[in-house]
Please model this.
Amino acid sequence: MEIPGIDRRNLLTQLFPSPDEHLFISGLAGPARDAAALTADGDNLFTMAGTMGAAVSMGLGVALSAPHCNIAVITGDGELLMNVGALATVATQGPANLSIVCIDNGCHGETGGQLGHTSHRCNLAKMAEGAGFSSVMSIASPHEIAEAADFLKAANSPRFLLVHVSNGPPSDYKRNLDPAACRLRFQNAYLKDLKKSP
Amino acid sequence: MNPDKNDWPGQLFKQLIDAEIFLYPYIPDAGNKKLIECAEAYPEARPILLTTEEEGIAICAGADLVKRRAVLCMQSSGVGNCANFLSLVNGGRFPILMIVSMRGDYGEQNPWQYPMGQAVEPILKAMGVVIFKVDAYEELKNAARAAIAACYQGGGQSAALILSQKFLGAKAF
Model:
């Protein structure tokens, strides 16, 4: 059945048509499933299944440590709000290679769909602007996704893209939940690529 | 000539740089002020001002994902803010190094500091972090060396260098 508005399940493939060109960090729950579906739980992705609020900071750590790579953080409205101060830290550091995509479904989908702050008065795009991001875009219609993909490519980094999605399930993708195995997988793939690059 | 006791931040910073630690996420504290100034003055080092200490845990873990090294510098109260994020460190075998400047132990004059100060070691131990405590200048070099070795010799261990108020001195109120 088609869902009006943006269906999150086919969002990331349109935003990142060449996912191999990025290193991805995702927060827990729905965004992790969507990111795992995008990369087939690839070794250029580290997803979380706990530590709510860690994704933006972890992405910043990768971005500052691998300045020659494109880093994308995939987070959700609840995850981002749990450590929203991290946006100020990113803006102050100003990494040249970091995009943050916030999939805003306005609720806590993983725990039963309880309404979140963005269903009330909270606007995360304004919070990103307030934190000091100069590249901020907010979309709510499928027709805007192509423009958002261009924004992620061309706007000055760091970039913050807020995507208001329809109330629907995330991608149905079972990913590896062993953080130690996923850490080694990510590191080994990164080091292998590093050897290949000139 | 013996090294100058008062320049312990400079000596500690040199040990960290020699260990190829270049990112310094921190929450400002009197105990890490000079260490962070050393990082600010060193071209390859990058201090990262945080809003809460747990961000620093995730930043250090992100650096590790691409085989770079970082150290989280914080006051003892920040350890409480890190507890949940240490599950990433423990479960993921991330070798995260922390430097904790203590409040709420010897000579503390602010009663608000005692509860968290006294909970630092139990929390770190509960989350699998190895502790190296410094009570005197003479202990600093070896304790720092031990903490660095614990992290980076390959076992995926996290470690905390704890600078006590016996060593740092207590803040007057």
Chain A touches chain B through 37 residues (CB under 8 Å).
